[in-house]
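call fold(seq) -> tokens
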Amino acid sequence: MNRPSVNVLDLPNEVLFYILRKLDNRDVLYSLFGIKNKRFDNIARDKTFSNTLDLALTNHETTIVDSILDKFCNRILPQIYYNIKCLVVRSASMERILIAAQYPCLTELKLVDFQQDSSLHYFTGY
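ret:
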């Protein structure tokens, strides 16, 4: 039986969005940014994947977490900052993420593993 080959690029945008919405926004952004494909780049920049962004990475491999944060802070956040309305971050990486870009539409900041002793100065000025 002869089967025609089907490429993911042959799918309409609606189908791609449906598939990608099943994934975590962080994974979609991390995977699609930097691909030299205008269509995927446009999809990754869509508000669907950047309105709420959970960067409270939970991984036992610190080097992997650091490389993911590097890509977000250096390449992704400076390009999608205007779409972000909600950020979820660990207190340990909060400063790094918040200085990566200005977030004019940010209305909600969720902190995971908040350490009062080490993080309170961000909110009090001390």
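The chain is about 45% helix and 10% strand.
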